[in-house]
UniProtKB/TrEMBL annotation, chain A:
UniProt domain Aldehyde oxidase/xanthine dehydrogenase a/b hammerhead: residue ranges: 23-136
Natural source organism: Streptomyces ochraceiscleroticus
InterPro entries assigned to the protein according to its UniProt record, in alphabetical order: Ald_Oxase/Xan_DH_a/b, Ald_Oxase/Xan_DH_a/b_sf, Ald_Oxase/xanthine_DH-like, AldOxase/xan_DH_MoCoBD1, AldOxase/xan_DH_MoCoBD2, AldOxase/xan_DH_Mopterin-bd_sf
Residues passing through the membrane, by range: none
Name of the featured protein: Xanthine dehydrogenase family protein molybdopterin-binding subunit
From TrEMBL, chain B:
Organism placement in taxonomy: Bacteria, Bacillati, Actinomycetota, Actinomycetes, Kitasatosporales
Coiled coil: none
Record-linked Gene3D superfamilies: 3.30.465.10, CO dehydrogenase flavoprotein, C-terminal domain, Uridine Diphospho-n-acetylenolpyruvylglucosamine Reductase, domain 2
Protein name as it appears in the record: FAD binding domain-containing protein
FAD-binding PCMH-type domain mapped to chain residues: 1-220
Cell membrane recorded as keyword: no
UniProt keywords, alphabetically: Oxidoreductase
Species name: Streptomyces ochraceiscleroticus
Record carries keyword Oxidoreductase: yes
Database matches in Pfam families: CO_deh_flav_C, FAD_binding_5
Length: 732, 326
């Protein structure tokens, strides 16, 4: 942090853009008012694999208002150059829209209808007749052939398991989940000559910019991507998906600005998802519960054309002290579209399995689940032989146990009952890595004492607008109202993807750097200015508060930015802030942690699970914006309740069709499912992680929720459910 | 959505004329518009009947209730007479849909609503209900939410309504108006089992208009209630449900009205359960023995086997809640 007083950082402020959002004045992707815009609707493949044999567009084109039907038979060939600087999986070949007759998955875009009205485009799309040569798709994770595994090993897990006095060997299944943000994915695309402007729902304007530039073979600076507001994304906006290319292609072909909004149903196969897993875990321990071995074998779905992988291996390597670890992570190519990161990617899945198995071990040994975890707490990251920068998981356990009333938990399952309901408590540990990447920001301090801070960035909901304004306000010594933070434009200085909980650490550190530079410029100007009351003062003795520079010891001696800049005839001061990212060779292991607690009620005869209360205790470094951090915990836990009890994308393996591609059949929690959520963030900071001392929190709040609930269900009923979501049929 | 004509009528005569010409009646529109957007429904003419004077709840002379076809779900649920005389009706309505939908949707529309079977709602899938002769994708497909009772080779879709289960239990009648005048259809005959013609869902003749649902008088005191079992707490169709009404006098069950939802191709009246109860004294063992008959004849599918057991447990639970445990 800076030597400045911290007035805004750490204060429980409301969202700076909150009023715009609740009054409907914040424009989301589809809401930008673009003159002359026409509408595009995608026609989805109705087979799971095969070839298109013919496309009949006559009826569609005969409809009033329909301008064009574009498909592989008439679409221009696109360069689709490689794009390594993206979230496209490095292995594979991305889906190329309308470039050939192949159908790789059910729902793949096979044509797009462009019309002057949305209604005409929708109707036209329903009239396009596509004939196929269909093959039976392979969509069943349990039946398909896996790729060669990615492996990790330390020690000899197999031998240690053979000699372990206590063993757990269990296979867990995690359902495919879709992000299902409120805002649908949408794109408006407009070409002016060879320049493309796109208003898009994205978590990374820079990534969408590079993707469109490589797909269309135009220079990156010919593509501008604008995305000021995102109505939730949870990871679905981390890639530029085919529909965005379709919109830009349609705009190019029709020479009109084109708006394309995916229907809810289309989100399920035009954007990615959290892949389903089959995950076998073996634990070996001594009779006191000290782990001697962990062996992980996991199969995860990916598409036939790209190999999607995520960070599912780390928790098994560093969460507990274990001398012998083996891991095999196999992707299974299926005739589906490519998965993508979803909140707590990899970690949330691994944590469900590891934390369930630890609970099984605790039950087998008759040791309290928290005590078992304490006995296996490592003193360093055993996968890297590095010290942890900060790891306060013990405090999370003890603080959480006290706040939640863990001592009220009965060790024996099925021993607490209230009428028809069995009551149980469970807990789990959560971990997520502290990612940081290079980022830049531009700071402009105006002569009127206001400032504008720009960074490409994104705010999908965690409160980037607010928290970056807090950092900038304190570093510049301005009030929140005097600082405007702008984001979501590829013309602004580049930033990494808005995901992986890295925005605060990365963009925030760049903002801090730039604001520190501007403040120092102003101080230098003052102390060297004979006419300034601060003339001759040591620069480090000057602080800025409320737009006024003064000496630390004598607040009366000073002047405002406004007077300083106007007297010196400076219209503004400016700086480019930057953050270089972590050192190439790190000296610490960086993770955020939590202990998550759940109390559930399970109807003893009807098998229904209700989450009565939840608590998360977080070791996430410095908390810049406590109110928004609490919102993140509420959202992360609510999503975890969904993963644990409700969410399951169902595929009909006969033809690869997703059968519940709507919000009536794909269930997410409603308010009535979310009764009581408490969040506690441990005070403190991580001085090694980044200049702000933050460790990231939007991901870790989701990790550990599902296993805490599953463990509570076990405590309530004595039933160990190893398949998510946990539904009534497993508990009858 | 296919283009369509929209007309608004202000008296029933005009409505019937438009209906006879093939117009589809629309009131709240909470189902029909959805299905039109999915191109499952492709009416050429939509006749807006929301202005017709069919929005009153009235007591019948003998102590029953007549609920106008255009009474909204929320108004019906909150009506003092419905609440006091037939809690099972209020509860079934309030456990349905969302507050916003209940404010729009009407009683007549509710009992006309079409199945939530996802294959029915996806025009690229085979569905005999939507397209006779095309087959049934659900029978061998994903069928967790589908019916175990009243199914046929042609169709296994559940009827989604909750209040229809209460109406079936109470043996309500549907009042309809057609070219030949008014007639009353017993609820048990109103909704049709699929058989080989799952596209035919109601015993309505072309152009007939539902004017009201009448719940007959039942002996008092009458305890009643509705239990809906579902994965999430709100805003979901039933996995199983039970509508129960019991007339207990002198410690003996004199009348029992029981029906189940979420399990049948139509709301599933349970006469065997009712017969087991009548003449008996309430007890935990009676509830269990009666409920044991709730799934008689069930033909479960690959993903809904649990419903057989869950249905019995649902009925038993609601019998206990409504009838007490003594």
């Amino acid at each position: 942090m800076s030597p400045q007083p911290q007035a805004a950082v750490g204060a429980p402020l409301s969202r700076v853009e909150g009023r715009l959002k609740v009054t409907g004045k914040a424009p989301y992707a589809a809401e930008h008012d673009i003159k002359g815009v026409v509408h595009a609707v995608i026609v989805d493949a109705s087979i799971g694999r095969g070839r298109i044999t013919s496309i009949d567009t006559d009826d569609a084109l005969a409809q009033p208002g329909v301008l064009k039907v574009i498909h592989h038979g008439n679409a221009p060939k696109l360069p689709y150059k490689d794009n390594p600087a993206s979230n496209n999986p490095p292995d594979g070949r991305r889906l190329r829209v309308f470039q050939d007759d192949k159908v790789l998955f059910h729902g793949q875009p096979v044509a797009v209808v462009v019309a002057t009205t949305l209604e005409a485009a929708q109707h036209g799309a329903s009239l396009v007749k596509v004939a196929y040569d269909a093959q039976k798709p392979s969509t069943d994770l349990a039946k398909a052939k896996a790729d060669k595994p990615t492996k990790y090993a330390r020690g000899d897990a197999a031998a240690a398991l053979r000699s372990a006095p206590v063993r757990i060997d269990a296979t867990y299944q995690v359902a495919r989940n879709h992000h299902n943000a409120m805002e649908p994915h949408a794109t408006i695309a407009r070409w002016s000559g060879n320049k493309l402007t796109v208003w898009d729902k994205t978590q990374w304007v820079v990534g969408t910019q590079t993707e469109l530039s490589t797909v269309f073979g135009v220079p990156a600076d010919s593509v501008r991507v604008i995305s000021p507001y995102v109505g939730g994304a949870f990871g679905s906006g981390l890639r530029c998906w085919p529909h965005t290319v379709v919109a830009a292609l349609a705009a190019r072909v029709t020479r009109r600005p084109v708006k394309l909004v995916l229907k809810r149903r289309q989100q399920y196969f035009n954007t990615g998802f959290r892949p389903s897993y089959e995950y076998r875990l073996k634990l070996g321990s001594n009779s006191q519960g000290r782990l001697t071995a962990m062996a992980h074998e996991m199969d995860a779905e990916t598409s036939s054309y790209e190999t999607f992988t995520e960070s599912v291996l780390f928790p098994g390597q560093m969460l507990y002290s274990t001398p012998n670890v083996s891991q095999a992570y196999r992707t299974v190519p299926l005739d589906v579209n490519t998965p993508i990161y979803m909140r707590g990617p990899g970690f949330a899945t691994a944590s469900f399995v590891i934390e369930s198995a630890m609970d099984e071990l605790a039950a087998k040994l008759g040791i309290d689940p928290i005590e078992l975890r304490l006995r296996n707490e490592p003193s360093e990251d055993e996968s890297k032989n590095l010290p942890f920068s900060t790891r306060r998981l013990r405090e999370c356990y003890t603080t959480g146990a006290r706040a939640f009333g863990w001592d009220q938990r009965r060790a024996k399952p099925r021993s607490r009952r209230e009428g028809d309901w069995l009551i149980g408590m469970g807990m789990a540990a959560g971990v997520y890595d502290t990612a940081r990447m290079p980022a830049q920001a531009r700071i402009l301090l105006n002569a009127d004492g206001t400032a504008v801070v720009d960074a490409a960035a994104s705010d999908m909901g965690p409160g980037t607008y607010t928290s970056q304004t807090q950092v900038a306000a304190d570093a510049l010594g301005l009030t929140m109202r005097s600082v405007t933070f702008r984001l979501g434009d590829s013309l602004f200085p580049p930033t990494p993807p808005h995901g992986g909980s890295m925005t605060m650490a990365s963009v925030g550190s760049a903002v801090l750097d730039g604001c520190n530079q501007v403040r120092r410029q102003a101080i230098k100007l003052a102390v060297e200015d004979r006419e300034s009351p601060l003339y001759g003062v040591e620069a480090e003795d000057v602080v800025v508060r409320g737009g006024r520079l003064h000496t630390k010891n004598n607040p009366v001696r000073g002047e405002t930015y406004k007077s300083l800049l106007s007297r010196n005839k400076r219209s503004h001061l400016e700086a480019k802030g930057s953050y270089a990212g972590p050192a190439a060779k790190e000296r610490h292991s960086f993770y955020a942690y939590n202990a998550t607690f759940a109390e559930v009620a399970v109807d003893a005869t009807l098998g229904l699970v209700r989450v009565r209360r939840m608590l998360g205790v977080y070791d996430a470094g410095r908390i810049i914006s406590p109110k928004l951090a609490e919102s993140q915990a509420i959202g992360g836990i609510t999503g975890g309740i969904g993963t644990a009890l409700l969410e399951h994308t169902v595929t009909d393996h006969r033809d690869g069709r997703i059968v519940n591609a709507n919000l009536a059949d794909y269930l997410v929690p409603v308010n009535a499912d979310v009764l009581d959520i408490q969040a506690i963030y441990l005070d403190g900071e991580d001085r090694e992680a980044d200049p702000l001392g933050v460790k990231g929190l939007g991901e870790v709040v989701h990790v550990g929720v599902a296993p805490a609930i599953a463990n509570a269900v076990f405590n309530a009923t004595g039933r160990r459910v190893r398949q998510l979501p946990i539904t009534a049929e497993a508990l009858l | 959505m296919y283009p369509f004509e929209y007309t608004r009528v202000s008296d029933t005569k005009d409505a019937l004329t438009a209906g006879r010409r093939g117009g589809r009646y629309i009131a709240g529109g909470t189902t029909l518009v959805d299905l039109m957007r999915e191109t499952v429904e492709r009416p050429e003419t939509v006749v807006d009947i929301s202005g017709l004077p069919l929005d009153e709840v009235t007591a019948t002379e003998r102590g029953g209730l007549r609920i106008g076809a255009l009474v909204t779900m929320s108004a019906a649920a909150a009506h003092p007479k419905v609440r006091t005389l037939f809690p099972v009706v209020s509860q079934s309505l309030e456990l349905s849909a969302s507050a916003q939908l209940r404010n729009m949707a009407t009683i007549g529309g509710n009992i006309m609503q079409r199945t939530r079977c996802t294959y029915f709602r996806d025009v690229t899938a085979a569905c005999n209900k939507r397209e006779p002769g095309s087959g049934c994708a659900a029978r061998e497909g994903y069928n967790r939410s589908h019916a175990i009772l009243g199914t046929s080779d042609a169709c296994v879709a559940t009827h989604p309504s909750d209040v229809a289960v209460a109406f079936a239990a109470l043996e309500a009648e549907v009042h309809v108006l057609g070219a030949d005048g008014q007639r009353r259809i017993p609820f048990a005959d109103f909704l049709l089992r699929p058989g080989s013609t799952p596209n035919r869902e109601q015993a309505l003749r072309k152009g007939e208009l539902i004017t009201a649902v009448e719940i007959p008088a039942l002996p008092r005191p009458l305890a009643s209630g509705y239990l809906k079992v579902r994965d999430r707490q709100s805003y979901e169709f039933a996995l199983t449900s039970a509508a129960v009404a019991l007339h207990i006098r002198g410690g003996v069950i004199r009348e029992a009205k029981v029906a189940a939802g979420g399990v049948g191709t139509v709301p599933w009246k349970l006469p065997a359960v009712e017969q087991h109860l009548v003449g008996e004294r309430p007890s935990a063992s009676l509830w269990a023995a009666a409920a044991a008959k709730a799934a008689d004849g069930a033909r479960p599918l690959a993903h809904n086997r649990f419903k057989t057991d869950l249905l019995k447990r649902t009925v038993e639970r609601k019998l206990r809640i409504v009838g007490g445990t003594k």
